[in-house]
């Protein structure tokens, strides 16, 4: 009689609640994975991608910059994690770190120098990715609409006058 009111047995109702909670957690994890395609990055409300990483054995973080593409932010993160944790770390793009194994094991770097290397890599990748995206958009844009801010080409005018 004393044990009946304080029973810790799992009832079918409690099992159902627990299973609902665990399924909602996996749904939340899937939702996060959709928004965050790579490790160590996140997207700001206005569309920029930022990267940061925690320093080992500290609560502080190293700010790795903000980028226009998620690939650039992920590459900046990969660079930092390579110098912090070595070649056995989990990378977003492991294929870029095959040749640099000896470089990381031979030196101990400060947070500022890690940040500088990561920002350099991220900026280079961001420039390439942005140029590639602009080239793809330019070719599509040419076929869709002309640029109204562009000065007319005199050769095009001569061709138009010759047809009249």
Automatic annotation (TrEMBL):
Residue ranges of every copy of the AP2/ERF domain listed in the record: 37-94
GO biological process, alphabetically ordered: ethylene-activated signaling pathway
Cell location: Nucleus
SMART domains: AP2 (SM00380)
Cellular compartments per GO CC: nucleus
GO molecular function, one term: DNA-binding transcription factor activity
Protein name per Swiss-Prot or TrEMBL: AP2/ERF domain-containing protein
Protein's organism: Nepenthes gracilis
């Amino acid at each position: 009689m004393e044990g009946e009111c304080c029973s810790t047995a799992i009832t079918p109702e409690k099992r159902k609640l627990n299973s609902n909670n665990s399924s909602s957690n996996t749904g939340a994890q899937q939702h996060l994975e959709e928004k965050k395609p790579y490790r160590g990055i996140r997207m700001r409300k206005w569309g920029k991608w930022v990267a940061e990483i925690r320093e080992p054995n500290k609560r502080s973080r190293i700010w790795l910059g903000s980028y226009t593409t998620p690939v650039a932010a992920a590459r900046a993160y990969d660079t930092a994690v390579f110098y912090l944790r070595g070649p056995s770390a989990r990378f977003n793009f492991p294929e870029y770190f095959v040749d640099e194994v000896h470089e990381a094991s031979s030196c101990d770097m400060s947070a500022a120098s890690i940040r500088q290397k990561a920002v350099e890599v991220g900026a280079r990748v961001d420039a390439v990715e942005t140029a590639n995206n602009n080239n793809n958009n330019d070719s599509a844009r040419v076929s869709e609409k002309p640029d109204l801010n562009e000065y007319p080409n005199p050769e095009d005018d001569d061709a138009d006058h010759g047809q009249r």
